[in-house]
Amino acid sequence: MSIDTAAPPAHPSGAEPVRAVIADDERLMREQLRARLAEVWPELQIVAEAKNGLEAVDLVNQHRPDLVFLDIRMPGLTGVDAARQIAQLEIGDDESLPEIVFITAYDQYAVEAFEQGVCDYVLKPAERERLQLTVSRIKQRLATRGTPEADTAPPVQQLLHKLAAQLNPGAAPRYLEWIQATVGQSIQMIPVAEVLFFISDEKYTRVQTASTEALIRKPIKELIDEVDPQVFWQIHRSTLVNVKAIAGISRDFRGRQIVAIKGHHEKLEVSRSYTHLFKGM
Q1: How far apart are CA 22 and CA 37, in angstroms?
Q2: Which residues lie closer than 8 Å to 83 by C-beta, 6 or more apart?
């Protein structure tokens, strides 16, 4: 595991070079990818290399890179599991999560979802032509982050659920149907389908329905893997919203997107990492 000492915030569109972390359990594959990247993207800084998924999450948390290359099959955590943890790292509202590029030896993982954005992929061994295409896409996404020109893409958790299902075809996803939550002095069973949104603080997550406000101890980073990603979108590191409950999107005086909820007065802020979800709204 190689580490540099400085970990400045990402500068995707400024003069600072783009910074990346490479994660692959095969040393030769890491070296080959580094060499190919030096050919097609010489300005790219590889700030650290990880030998497994746990190291990858730790190094991304340390260095806050703009980009991370994750081998899909790694010991400790798979690349998909590492990506899930990376997607839940604490970041500032004005920061962005790193772009994800999966490294795979298996073409069947190059699913249609990759072509839609959110994440990209590179087949082993990294071919110069395919890598150039990936680099072009990544540069475009970094340059347009947080702008109206950003690509429209589905929530990252949808792609990660899809990839996890491909890695474990016999394990069909089962999503939460009921939430056991505290309402005042009592415990109630709340149908997940009735939840408008979840909002977390340091200790609790608020479960909001049209008629009930309840509390649970489960954080957003755990809920995200238990609810249907087609229904609940993450719009902030601390917020999941039921897509069916969204009344509209507006902007506040700072230019930030604000989600209005049907039949509820509360407005939910969209952090920079998730603004692409509502492109054109």
Answers
A1: 11
A2: 70, 100, 102, 119, 156, 160
Give the pair of three-digit tokens for residue 124. 């082993």
Q: Which residue has the tokens 């970041």?
A: 91
CA distances (Å), origin 98, targets 36, 50, 112, 142, 160: 20, 16, 21, 9, 15
H-type helices in the chain, by residue range?
Answer: 27-40, 53-63, 79-87, 112-115, 128-144, 156-167, 220-223
pLDDT (0 to 100) of residue 129 = 86
Let me know: does 227 contact 236? Beta carbons within 8 Å. no
Chain length of the chain: 281
Q: Residue for token digits 């979802």?
A: 113
Please choose, from the candidates 136, 131, 134, 106, the residue with its C-alpha nearest in 3D space to the C-alpha of residue 119.
Answer: 134
DSSP E strand boundaries for the chain = 19-23, 45-50, 67-71, 99-104, 119-123, 178-183, 186-191, 195-200, 205-209, 213-216, 232-236, 239-242, 246-251, 257-261, 264-269
The pLDDT tens digits for 109-127 are 555 545 555 577 888 888 8
The CA distance from 249 to 45, in Å, is 37
Query: What is the spatial distance between Cα 177 and Cα 191, in angstroms, rounded to a whole number?
Result: 6
Burial of 241 (0-12, 13-18, 19+ CB in 10 A): buried
Q: How much is the pTM?
A: 0.64
Beta-carbon count within 10 A of 143 CB: 12
Q: Please list, in sequence order, all residues whose beta carbon lies within 8 angstroms of the beta carbon of residue 274, skipping any fewer than 6 positions away.
A: 155, 233, 234, 235, 236
